[in-house]
Amino acid sequence: MRANYGSIIKNLNTVTKWLERGLTKPGCWAYPDMLEVGCFNGPGGTSDSGLNMAETRTHFGAWAIVSSPLILSHDMLNDTVTDIIWPVIANTEAIAVNQAWHGSAGGIFKESEELVQLHYKNDTASFYFSAPAYRYYYKPISDSEVAVLMLNMKSNAPLLLSVDDIPGWPTDSTADIRDIWKHQNVGKNSNVFTCTAGMHDCCFLVVTKSQKTLEKQKNAA
Q1: For residue 134, which of 58, 68, 191 has the smallest C-alpha distance?
Q2: pTM here?
Q3: According to CATH, what is the number of the domain 5-220?
Q4: In degrees, to the nearest 5, what angle opens at C-alpha 179 toward C-alphas 190 and 15?
């Protein structure tokens, strides 16, 4: 893998088949390759063009939500680069999602029919491939919590993204929403959450069933 957005998404796509076959779990995690956050002009030369901050968030968040090992590969002696990416790689809430296990390693639950073209490039190959304009991933954290990552794969426009259909949750559920990147609670007793994701950026959330929903489920049991 190289430090460019197309390469990141191409490698991320490889983990889906392992999840569908039940082969990514404790002791046997799907591994879409080392993290390329903070890598510029590496062995791939122009193939290692580097990621902007939006792409860096997407890369780290995606690896976190599919339970990939988080192996850094940037120059750790370069304090300037480390300082830039530190808010992402040291985000304890994102790392907690990565480390959680509640029956699923995390995978796709929604994507657009609209397609965009992404450019994959390394030192031996260069080609375009199709990807959805947006894609949603989720990972259960507990009986009442799930992490959601919403990706905007467009390179020319931000997207307004919303989530209201968590897999396995009753359709009338309400939830409290926390933004992992901002370390802020952004919704309470909500049945839908909407955010704007910039170009190649993402929204990374922890969605927790509201007390009202938990009480309703308890009474129905």
Answers
A1: 58
A2: 0.94
A3: 2.60.40.1180
A4: 105
